[in-house]
Specification:
heterodimer, A: 163 residues, mainly alpha, 7 helices, B: 163 residues
């Protein structure tokens, strides 16, 4: 069961992140430049959000399979922060895009603020993938010799373990 | 001696090579390779999906399918290169284990089929004007393409679960 959920989580990456990559690359002005930016974003929005929904659902299921270990994973904590940052970036971008899109919609290369937001989005999502992958590793797990900073960042209950 | 048996020395050599040793020694680098493997999988899957969904008439119906297919293919090629490079590094570290893993072979066969399909059938076909191609043939190609790349990714994820 865990394997199926995990596989769905990873494969949906191609749906969600794949669509996101295509949209962001368009916003950078390097992919499908003949298609109006807003049209591409609007048309790929539904498959992207569909993928996002599946990722969230399977992601929550994976979390519940090992809630304590996951909560005490530095990587998971960074991942959640990056996810929130990516969400805020996307929301701000959406609001700005709907306001001023007609001035640059047909441009092959969108204006600088748009490109910056797209680059930020790509960077944040890359971080989400990297930290997500690292959750599987035990480098900074609690209960081993490591710095106080690491124990604090992972939320390890050091004192409780020592007693 | 079968072809399968003949391949064993190559996998043993790969694991003992510098690449294999590096993949074993540096967990952090390995996790980064895995992350890049996942991100390029997302890009590859995204470009395949956008093209196939367009050919099936699901998304971007008002954009010429030639533009979508050509624009996506450029990024597909980049994604394929990154997938293969990161994948080579990943397999080098566990080469003999992969050799005895049937999902590894299933994936490699699916991958070869996928590459051959794209460069020998799909691209040559899509380079002609799409209106002149029979609609059922376009849809068949789109379905076959999605199926084969889904198989590659699914078998790939399953390598980690078996063996």
């Amino acid at each position: 069961m865990y394997n199926w959920v995990e596989t769905t989580h990873v494969l949906t990456l191609a749906v969600f992140l794949g669509m996101l990559f295509v949209i962001d690359l368009r916003m950078l002005g390097v992919c499908l430049t003949s298609v109006p930016a807003s049209k591409l974003a609007a048309r790929l929005d539904r498959p992207m959000m569909l993928g996002f929904a599946v990722m969230i659902i399977t992601g929550v299921m994976l979390f519940y399979a090992a809630p304590i270990r996951t909560t005490q994973s530095v990587w998971f904590r960074i991942k959640v922060v990056l996810l929130i940052a990516a969400g805020i970036n996307a929301m701000l971008f959406r609001r700005k895009m709907h306001g001023a899109v007609h001035s640059w919609d047909q441009d092959a290369v969108p204006p600088k603020p748009v490109r910056t937001a797209a680059a930020l989005s790509l960077t944040l999502w890359a971080g989400v993938v990297i930290t997500g992958r690292c959750i599987a590793y035990n480098w900074f797990d609690c209960g081993q010799e490591q710095s106080d900073l690491m124990n604090w960042a992972a939320g390890c209950l050091v004192d409780a373990a020592a007693q | 001696m079968s072809l399968y048996q003949q391949a064993l020395p190559f996998f043993e050599w790969l694991e003992s090579s510098g690449l294999g040793q590096a993949a074993k020694a540096y967990g952090g680098v390995y996790a980064m390779a895995q992350s890049f493997h996942l991100m390029s999988l997302a890009l590859l899957g995204g470009t395949v999906l956008v093209t196939d969904l367009r050919l099936l008439g699901v998304v971007l119906r008002d954009v010429p399918s030639e533009a979508v297919a050509d624009g996506a293919h450029r990024w597909f090629k980049l994604a394929l290169v990154v997938v293969i490079l990161s994948g080579t590094f990943m397999v080098a570290g566990v080469a003999t284990k992969a050799y005895y893993n049937e999902f590894y072979w299933a994936k490699m066969i699916a991958l070869l089929v996928g590459i051959a399909f794209v460069f020998a059938i799909k691209r040559p076909l899509l380079r002609t004007e799409h209106a002149k191609i029979r609609p059922w043939l376009l849809k068949l190609v789109a379905l076959a393409s999605t199926t084969v790349w889904f198989t590659v990714a699914a078998c790939g994820r399953w390598i980690g679960f078996s063996g």
